[in-house]
Amino acid sequence: MSSLGPDTTAAAGPPSVPPAAAQVRVTRARRSTLAAAAAVVLIVAVLAYLPYLVYSGTTNLLVNFFTLLIMASMWNLLAGYAGLVSVGQQAFVGLGAYGVLLLASHGTSPFLAIPVATAACAVLGLPVWWLVSRLRSGYFAITMWVIASVCELIISQIPSFGGGTGTGLPGLPGNPTLLTADTYWATLACAVLALGVVYLLLRSRIGLVLTAVRDDETGARSVGVRVASTQRLVFLVAAAGCGVAGALYIVSQQFVEPTAAFSVLWSAKMIFITVIGGIGTIEGPIIGTIIYFVLQQTLAQYGTWYFIALGLVAMAIAIWARRGIWGLIADRFGIRLFGVGYWLSPAGPPDRDRGSR
Amino acid sequence: MPEPAGPDLLRLDGVCKSFGKVVVADRLSLTVGAGDLVGIVGPNGAGKSSLFGLIAGDLRPSAGQIVFAGRPVTRLDATARCRMGIGRTFQVPRPFGGMTVLENVLVAVQQGAGLRRRPSYAAAAAVLDRTGLLGDANIPAERLGLLSRKRLEVARALATGPDLLLLDEVAGGLTDPEVAELVTIVRGISAQGVAVVWIEHVLHALTATVHRLLCLAGGTFIGDGAPAEVLALPEVREVFLGTEVTASLHQAGPRLADGQDREDR
Ligand SMILES: Nc1ncnc2c1ncn2[C@@H]1O[C@H](COP(=O)(O)OP(=O)(O)OP(=O)(O)O)[C@@H](O)[C@H]1O
Ligand SMILES: [Mg+2]
């Protein structure tokens, strides 16, 4: 990744600039970022090798993990950065799932159908954005939910999709070991790609814009930020992201029904995970998904209690630690795993190896 | 009304705006020339900040026209007007709290002035230097004190490369030496040919800096001219009767009472 290299420049400036400004440099890469990049490569390599080491139960669990991680990262991008709080992202989860079903029932391999369905979700995101972009906060959130419900109703009327009772996904490989491994690898690849997109987006010029919009939308407009077009971009990325999660969901379940695919629980989980982990940070959804799964595994025998526990944890965090678990960790230890910020040197405290983002 | 030095940069024609029954602009007309340095005073709630909102595009007038650099901008939003060259600060600072000071300025350079990568870094560093923020560059904006927050407001507006800079009470709540520093910064900006319109209750700072003073009250300008002349007008003295301004007219340049800066934090 070339953008990880030191991207440094001397701020020479026009002749009228006093010498102080000419002596500083603006830098991107940080030591901690390079360490994190190495760790990411190592972790992904180990994860990719996992199907040779563990039983399918573990990889299936990780498939769920990655799918939720993708969704939460997308919701975080939407709500945490672009200020678009949606409770209707399940619209794209469902459309992604049914997109794969549609393609697979016409003979396409489900795995090849995943990227196509993802792209289709981004395209479908355009008219949806046209509809909801005029709406603010609560109205936006609720309208997204309505759109998801409308999608569910329409899909459940289509007999070839199995109507309301659902249908199996045709065209999957017969060998169960191979299927499990392929599903796992596809999910891992999509998760790495999705998180990579989020990271690169936030590290790019748009990242600065998104963070500004996150912190103060009026202030952002006053410095020339095109808030609406930035929000549209994020909305389409999130549509594709939730679409790919839905596509992975149907492949891993090998079955789909409208109520599950378009369930508002998807949005609830995205919100829980993001709020618990830390909204408006790249790391937050990752931490949040880990916590979610730990809670789910330990409380699984108590049935729906884990949902209640999760709700209580999310509420506690929303009240007492608004920046989530990652916010607490980052403040306590002063670390950023994914450096997307800028650094001016030698001005400022030189001992701090971090930015604010 | 004194003729502005250069050609008109900004013109307001019969601009009207009210919030319910509160009239903040009643057929307001105003011209600001390129490179002008204009002060605005007026009692609390006179509509000074709202006037900036109208000029910068945060508020829509119910009637009237706004022309900037020869182009009507009445229908343009704040983003477009910023990109055309209108920079503004907010009375209550609106920093991007989770971003560093450098990043605050950088986003303004990249979006408002349209610079990218290295040129944008250089421009941001130059703006930080001019506003005395180089030492705070890597600090998250939410950790800044009041003076630095006010400076950041100026820095961010300046970073958008404005031809017209709107300063809303950037000296409010500061100590005298801090005010003096800000005055130096504002003078420097003006010396570079940027037109500055400055709303301020800290009268001694304003009158020592601007060439022209406007007094806004009841949605109209009740005074426009050289600072000393405007402050001597009976109608201006009347609206300020018993307020901080009258006090500071009598005492030589004291700091203002806390009351008027209630909005500043
Ligand atoms: N968005 C708004 N909605 C409703 N009323 C508003 C709004 N903005 C301002 N006002 C009202 O308009 C009047 C003018 O406000 P404005 O902030 O422009 O005054 P000001 O001259 O800047 O005052 P100050 O010296 O206190 O900053 C006030 O009475 C205020 O309450
Ligand atoms: Mg005001």
Please describe what this structure looks like:
Chain A has 357 residues and is mostly helical. Chain A is 67% helix and 3% strand. Chain A has one domain (24-346). In chain A, the strands form two sheets. Chain A has a three-stranded antiparallel β-sheet, with no helix packed on it. Chain A has a two-stranded antiparallel sheet with strand order 3-4. In chain A, α12 (265-277) crosses α14 and α12 (265-277) packs parallel to α15. Chain A is globular. Chain B folds into two domains: 1-85 and 165-265, Rossmann fold, CATH 3.40.50.300; 93-161. Chain B has helices at 48-56, 78-84, 101-112, 117-130, 146-159, 176-191, 203-209, 227-232, 234-239, 244-250; strands at 8-19, 22-33, 37-41, 63-68, 71-72, 86-88, 164-168, 195-199, 212-217, 220-225. In chain B, α6 links the parallel β7 (164-168) and β8 (195-199). The longest helix of chain B has 16 residues, at 176-191. The radius of gyration of chain B is 18 Å and the shape is globular. Chains A and B meet through β1, α8 and α9 of A and α2, α3, α4 and α5 of B. The complex binds adenosine-5'-triphosphate and magnesium ion (MG). Residues 48-49, 91, 168 of chain B line the site of magnesium ion. The site of magnesium ion has 4 residues of chain B, from α1.
